[in-house]
Here is the input.
Amino acid sequence: MATLPRSAKSTTPNSSKFHRPHSALDFDAGINASTAWTEHLERTVSDEEPDDAEDDDEQYRVARALYDFEGKAEFRELNVEAGAVIYIVKEELADGWSLVKTTDGELGLLPQSYYTFTSDFKEGLDIQSSFNKKTREASSSSITPRGSPTSPQIALPITPQTTGEWRSFPSFTQSLLGGKSLNRFSSFVTSGAEDWVLNGTNVDEQIVPQVQRQSHHRRESTDEDIDDLDETQRLHRLGEADQHYVEPGPSWKVKLPPFQVMVHTPSKRTSTLTGAFTVYSVTSLFQSPPDSELATPPASPTRITVYRRFSHFVLLHTALCKRLPGIALPALPEKQYAGRFSDAFVEARRGDLERYISRIVRHPVARYAEIVTFFLSCDSELEWKRIAPQHLSMPPAGPSFYAHVFHPAFNVDADEASETVDRFQTHTRAVGKGVQGLRNIFGRVREARLGVATAERLLSYSLLSLITGKPLASAPTTGGSGSENEDEDEDERTFKLKRVLNEEGAWCWKEGCEECLKLTKAMQKTSDAFQHVADLYDDHARRTQLATHESFKNVAHPSSLYSSVIQTHRSTLTRYKDSTSNGGTDDEMASRCETVLNTTMAEMETYHTQKIEDFSTLTKEHLDGEIQLYQQILSRLQLARNNFDPPQFDNLGTGARQPSMYERELEHPRLTPELLPQPCPHVYDSAPMRPVSVAIQEGVGMLLGGSAGQNRASVFSKFW
Here is the structure.
């Protein structure tokens, strides 16, 4: 794939030359480079300029169309060809549209995703002088790219235009696509890694550590400079939280000890402006280290509790994606539109949010981000409203993220890095496929446990029916439905029952039979024990195993989660090999490639560490739940067994038998359990399972007709 020509080497770091394309073909050839086009700064005509220098189009922002678009005239939409110059009159309209103007003066609508802003690019030295003269006669307020030989004064840095989303939110579309993004640009471009590898970054406005790599050129900031900043400027400057270190391995250096975060106690609240919403308590637990000298146990952890809505988690995720583009962040749970206040959904959402924030604070880099600290500690609503917009307004880190990654020099071997990413990709794909199969099997295990509960309950009813003489109605496995007894009147039923039980309720035709009384009571307690065992199986499948089933989302889809890391790693390897081949060596580019490769390989090592923790925790929790279940079952069965041995068996001979609480259920046994609750799907699951997704799917199916074998006619077929 062709890209823009590389800039000539210069003694001034980060300098580059920009060339104006001569045709739309040149524009399309270089669109995949993050530095191909930069956002056009709005121009203002100086009062000293003559009146005839003013143009109506100068007041609009200049852009170029990325794709062909055929608009509908009845909706005032434009027809635009890829590469065409357009002027943005109003950028943000409803539903993602923009009001634009063509060079012919035609005004209409165009989707925001179909264009990108451009700036005036200086031509190379071989451009005709007549064109250079026109360029120099432009408005005095125009910004000239840094490093241009015709720049009359020191120009401000140009922020590279984002050629695509930095990280898309989880959405219904994303779940339909199995987590894949519609963005056609690779993560190597959108994360700023390509811009960093090709050009470095401007670091004039960044705070840097004292220990610097040789290839990173930065200006030291003094304390006086920082003190002169207001709060907004201080937040927008890079500090210690934006400096990341890679240790030999490569692996991320742990700057902050891990801590625990719990999301609990959801409550429904109502606002006159936004309506009803759910608030979750978010508690951070910081464990103080034990005092080895005094040999005292560690003190109770420090607790910090704040209250957050789902929209607050969205803000956290947005800010993290902008500031940490090189990190594989967990996916945020999808937004819910139907049934979002039901107890089942609120509990499922609570668990998803707890898993999300727990994975954030587990990451050795993400857990000390400023937005995470602010999210977990700000307990003032006024302070939140004042500071949160400032975090959202911070520009994407882009190449500056990689500029603040520090690692040992020359610690990457290209062949080893290539083999590592191949094995990592193969492994994550296999893990994802295996986990998906395990999730399906675990769902069948839960259904089987529910079947065992029903069987235990049926056994209890059958035993109770035996010793009481009362028939079991609607029993699916008895061979009869109880209809043979429907014609019997109440007197006949009472007469037969007296022949089965004596006056004391013992299972005997003899009156005053103490042994049968003992036996009947012991068997009745056994029947009750089977009911308790059935309850244990049912509760285990609905609660304990449901929590384990939900926890599988922690280890599901690692290949999708780390796809951006893999893409960036492979693309950087290609650039690295280009810079060290063909008889020439670009040391600066190779050094920057090493920085990106250290970042991606540190992310792979992070996955390795977390995989061990996740699967160990998941397996231990499942085994603990199984052990607890069978211990409770064993305890119930042991108590029932003891009733047949003295002294418990002897004590059952005193007093008449009291009816069991389950005898009343013999006429209407509980043999059809409620549907088993299923875990909410992972964002990267291919099949839409949430209520809104199911509703849309069913609605489309109703209109178009069901699949083969469903025998469902569509609405259209009825009219046809």
